């Protein structure tokens, strides 16, 4: 069924656009350095529209596809069971019931709702989502970012076909307009129907977000304060509480406007889907309404960390709650009530709330409470002592290491000095291990294999190497952003990590770079002219093999860059990274 546009532009208060512009200017630096109003507005709209999904800024940035040949699309985000899907996501982990959400966002800071834009969308979206799309034709019409975003969607949907997913497509057009456009209003039903026709079991919802709706979304609390009622009394000791909460009350606690608050969860839920059987067992327990055993008898319960927690009138008020254990339970409770489930027996779930402001104790709780679950070990690496060492070392240099999602950005630190654990891993993969093709093609899975994690973050690695990796990333990122209008997206999208590898060679004067030499590189000596020279060379070599995404993801292209390097090849081979074979992490040096 084609969704109605939920908010008419004519309902805007004339002051709302002024408020949004003020918010935008105040927050512009959070999105990046030297952004113009239009680019900052794209980040802002994606952040507001997708607030309940709890995306990091890196994830928001990766969804931006704006540029030449974008088909009127500014950003694309593909979710399965509310988990953001990347090019290397293993779709086999998703078992029925499966829900797919595709968000396509068009944002325009000036000019209002424009029928030309919707005409573009009506042409572009149906052919981009079509599972039998002609890739040759699409390649001639759309830029590399658009092509990859929809390739991930089509491949994901094909992989999920035997799970019979429900498919929800959301078209959002956002603007600071204070006026309606009758022609646009008339186009909305036909746009929705054209999209639904490409997948019979899909629904399409077209929303117009004007200044008033954007303001309502923006003013929702970034500091989240939630109340959770408890049954009878809570056991309190020190700064911790243990109590029983009705499962219906817990559902209300983890949702807002009927949607689960993903920002409330420490890890992406897909890391916890160790087997479909576990989820099915929880779901079956919830559906057995007349069971004489209460739900909490059969379930290990929930652990929540809080900045502050206060008990009053049989309710616990929790500031910035973070669920660190019990994610499968939480999502199954959400699904149960979202699917119109009821609980006449008013069953309960056990909840622990711990008020912890010390980072080390916080990490200990996260690791301890997840030690018996099916979570992949790599998902807990952010809590490890060596990661703390990297964090502390980089902090002394004015580099802010985001082991936690957007921790430093939310504290107002300069964007050009913040690097997340995933980006640092990709940079180390390209520079230290000389595998930029893996950094490009496996952005979310590098840390999931223990052997590869230890190659990237062995606790005997000189910490100065991570400084070099971070500083090179910042240099290249700034270069790409400053020249974004001049660099075709096919190169910008594919060659970042290949460029990082070669810039390390350039600074060293030879390749390969021995770890001891890598730690001594002075990134401050790198000039824009050198970056341009190496990047131009990389583009030439990429064109020779065929400038398409898949060629940037294979080791044959990396070998070609090594063979055609602009620097001499050293006769001294770099020291090989030793990988533990016994499951140990080694000892600190």
Structure description:
By secondary structure, this protein is α/β, with parallel strands linked by helices. The chain has 3 domains: 9-218, 3-Layer(aba) Sandwich (Trna Endonuclease, Chain: A, domain 1); 225-369, no CATH class; 377-569, no CATH class. The chain has 22 helices and 19 strands. The strands form 6 sheets. Strands 2-1-3-4-5 form a 5-stranded mixed sheet.
Strand order of the largest sheet: 2-1-3-4-5
Number of domain modules: 3
Report low-confidence residues grouped into runs of 5 or more.
1-12, 268-272, 576-589
* Rg, Cα atoms, Å: 25 Å
Strand content: 15-25%
Mean pLDDT comes to: 87
Q: Please state the overall shape, judged from the principal axes of the Cα atoms.
A: globular
- The CATH architecture of the largest domain can be named as 3-Layer(aba) Sandwich
Report the major sheet: 5 strands, mixed
Distance between the termini: 62 Å
Class of secondary structure makeup: alpha/beta
The helix content is: 40-55%
List the helices and strands and how they pair.
Layout: H1 16-31, H2 37-49, H3 57-62, E1 75-80, E2 83-84, E3 99-108, H4 115-129, H5 135-141, H6 144-159, E4 166-175, H7 182-196, E5 202-209, H8 211-218, E6 225-229, E7 235-237, E8 240-246, H9 247-253, E9 255-256, E10 259-260, H10 276-287, E11 302-306, E12 308-312, E13 315-319, E14 322-325, H11 327-338, E15 348-355, H12 359-369, H13 385-396, E16 400-402, E17 418-420, H14 421-431, H15 436-441, H16 450-456, H17 463-482, H18 489-494, H19 496-508, E18 510-511, H20 515-518, H21 528-545, H22 555-563, E19 568-569
Parallel strand pairs: 3-4, 4-5, 11-15, 16-17, 18-19
Antiparallel strand pairs: 1-2, 1-3, 6-13, 7-8, 8-15, 9-10, 11-14, 12-13
């Amino acid at each position: 069924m084609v969704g109605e546009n939920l908010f008419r532009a004519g309902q805007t208060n004339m002051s709302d656009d002024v408020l949004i512009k003020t918010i935008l200017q105040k927050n512009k630096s959070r999105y990046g350095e030297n952004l113009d109003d239009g680019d900052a507005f794209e980040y802002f709209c994606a952040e507001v529209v997708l607030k309940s999904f709890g995306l990091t800024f890196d994830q928001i940035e990766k969804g931006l596809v704006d540029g030449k040949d974008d088909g009127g699309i500014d950003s694309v985000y593909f979710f399965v069971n509310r988990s953001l899907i990347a090019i290397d996501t293993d779709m086999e982990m998703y078992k029925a019931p499966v829900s797919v959400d595709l968000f396509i966002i068009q944002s325009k800071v000036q000019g209002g709702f424009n029928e030309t834009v919707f005409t573009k969308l009506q042409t572009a979206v149906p052919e981009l989502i079509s599972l039998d799309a002609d890739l040759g034709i699409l390649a001639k019409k759309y830029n590399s970012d658009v092509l990859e975003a929809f390739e991930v969607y089509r491949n994901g949907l094909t992989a999920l076909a035997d799970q019979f997913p429900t498919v929800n497509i959301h078209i959002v057009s956002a603007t600071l307009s204070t006026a309606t456009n009758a022609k646009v209003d008339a186009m909305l039903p036909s746009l929705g129907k054209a999209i639904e026709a490409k997948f019979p079991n899909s629904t399409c919802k077209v929303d117009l977000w004007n200044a008033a709706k954007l303001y309502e979304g923006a003013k929702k609390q970034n500091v989240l304060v939630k109340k959770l009622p408890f049954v009878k009394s809570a056991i309190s000791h020190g700064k911790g509480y243990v109590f029983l909460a009705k499962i219906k009350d817990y559902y209300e606690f983890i949702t807002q406007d009927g949607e689960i608050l993903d920002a409330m969860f420490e890890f992406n839920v897909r890391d916890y889907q160790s087997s479909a059987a576990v989820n099915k067992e929880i779901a079956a327990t919830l559906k057995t309404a007349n069971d004489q055993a209460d739900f909490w008898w059969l379930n290990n319960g929930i652990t929540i960390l809080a900045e502050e927690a206060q008990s009053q009138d049989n309710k616990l008020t929790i500031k910035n709650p973070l669920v660190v254990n019990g994610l499968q339970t939480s999502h199954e409770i959400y699904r149960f009530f979202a699917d119109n489930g009821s609980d006449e027996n008013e069953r309960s779930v056990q909840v622990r709330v711990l008020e912890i402001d010390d980072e080390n104790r916080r990490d200990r709780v996260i690791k301890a409470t997840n030690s018996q679950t099916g979570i992949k070990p790599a998902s807990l690496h952010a809590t490890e002592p060596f990661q703390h060492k990297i964090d502390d070392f980089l902090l002394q240099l004015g580099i802010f290491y985001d082991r936690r999602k957007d921790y430093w950005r939310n504290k107002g630190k300069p964007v050009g000095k913040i690097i997340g654990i995933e980006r640092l891993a990709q940079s180390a993969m390209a520079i230290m291990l000389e595998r930029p093709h893996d950094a490009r093609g496996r952005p979310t899975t590098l840390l999931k294999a223990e052997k590869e994690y230890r190659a990237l973050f062995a606790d005997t690695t000189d910490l100065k190497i991570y400084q070099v990796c971070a500083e090179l990333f910042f240099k290249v990122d700034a270069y790409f952003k400053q020249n974004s209008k001049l660099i075709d997206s096919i190169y910008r999208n594919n060659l970042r990590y290949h460029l990082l590898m070669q810039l390390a060679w350039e600074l060293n004067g030879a390749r390969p770079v021995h770890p001891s030499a890598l730690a001594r590189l002075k990134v401050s000596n790198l000039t824009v002219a050198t970056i341009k020279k190496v990047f131009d060379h990389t583009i030439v070599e990429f064109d020779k093999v065929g400038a398409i995404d898949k060629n940037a993801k294979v080791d044959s292209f990396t070998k070609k860059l090594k063979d055609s390097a602009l620097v001499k090849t050293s006769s001294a081979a770099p020291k090989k990274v030793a990988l533990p074979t016994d499951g140990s992490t080694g000892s600190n040096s």
